């Protein structure tokens, strides 16, 4: 992961992203999340522990240009979720609200097969299928998580206001109301028995 001085964008510029891998040679940041970063976040804690005894697999990566985090800028990059399951539950991003909760985000699926799980603090939920060419607008106040239900990496391009920030802690502590698991070879949405309720 590079730590470069944030870019203050004063002029237009272009970036090339590979539509299959989501990688660009111009990225300033890459964040890697492994199974060990998901303690308590998957439904089957025992399955996670057994997997960790064998290998701490990479679950997802994020690439991002290091633009200055001010409201004039838009941060953009790619989310790459790799195929795999913990027990019956598919690999996923941790999911987050924005620290400035009223700010939204746009996702555009470049490759792979997945679902975007979304919910509000008030209990509204929405789950949409991600396939190449599908774009999703996530309004403010909606937490969001990408889930890979396919056999290849799920790659999505994202854009949000640069000062939005990320609130991962709420999801880590409370969980999402809905989970995506494999049931008889097909993805299925279930209620999360570990969900603790949100008060935001």
Characterize the biggest β-sheet: 6 strands, antiparallel
Enter the CATH topology name.
Jelly Rolls
Report the end-to-end length measured between terminal Cα atoms.
Answer: 32 Å
Total helices: the number is 2
Question: In total, how many domains does the architecture comprise?
Answer: 1
Mean pLDDT: 90
Cα Rg:
17 Å
Helicity, as a percent range: under 10%
Assembly state of the chains shown: single chain
Spans of 5+ residues with little confidence (pLDDT < 50)? none
Strand fraction equals 35-45%
Please, could you describe this protein's structure?
The chain has two helices and 13 strands, in the order E-H-E-E-E-E-E-E-E-E-E-E-H-E-E. By secondary structure, the protein is mainly beta. It has one domain (29-191): Jelly Rolls (Sandwich). The strands form four sheets. Strands 1-2-3-11-6-9 form a six-stranded antiparallel beta sheet, with no helix packed on it. The relative contact order is 0.20. The model has no long low-confidence stretch (mean pLDDT 90).
Defining key terms:
single chain; about 200 residues; mainly beta; Jelly Rolls; 6-stranded antiparallel sheet; 3-stranded antiparallel sheet; about 35% strand
Describe the SSE topology.
Layout: E1 29-34, H1 45-54, E2 58-64, E3 74-81, E4 85-86, E5 89-90, E6 105-111, E7 114-119, E8 125-130, E9 135-138, E10 143-148, E11 154-161, H2 169-174, E12 178-183, E13 186-191
């Amino acid at each position: 992961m590079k730590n470069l001085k944030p870019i203050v964008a004063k002029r237009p510029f272009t970036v090339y992203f590979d539509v299959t891998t989501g990688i660009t040679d111009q990225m300033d940041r890459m964040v890697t999340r492994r199974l060990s970063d998901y303690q308590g976040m998957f439904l089957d804690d025992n399955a996670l522990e057994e997997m960790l005894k064998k290998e701490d697999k990479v679950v997802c990566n994020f690439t991002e240009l290091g633009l200055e985090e001010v409201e004039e800028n838009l941060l953009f990059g790619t989310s790459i979720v790799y195929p795999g399951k913990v027990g019956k539950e598919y690999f996923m991003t941790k999911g987050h609200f924005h620290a400035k909760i009223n700010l939204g985000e746009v996702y555009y699926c470049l490759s792979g097969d997945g679902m975007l799980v979304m919910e509000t603090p008030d209990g509204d939920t929405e789950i949409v299928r991600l396939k190449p060419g599908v774009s999703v607008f996530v309004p403010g106040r909606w937490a969001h998580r990408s889930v890979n239900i396919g056999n290849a990496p799920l790659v999505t391009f994202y854009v949000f206001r640069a000062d939005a920030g990320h609130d991962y802690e709420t999801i880590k502590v409370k969980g999402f109301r809905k989970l995506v698991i494999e049931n008889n070879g097909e993805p299925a949405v279930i209620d999360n028995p570990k969900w603790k309720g949100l008060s935001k």
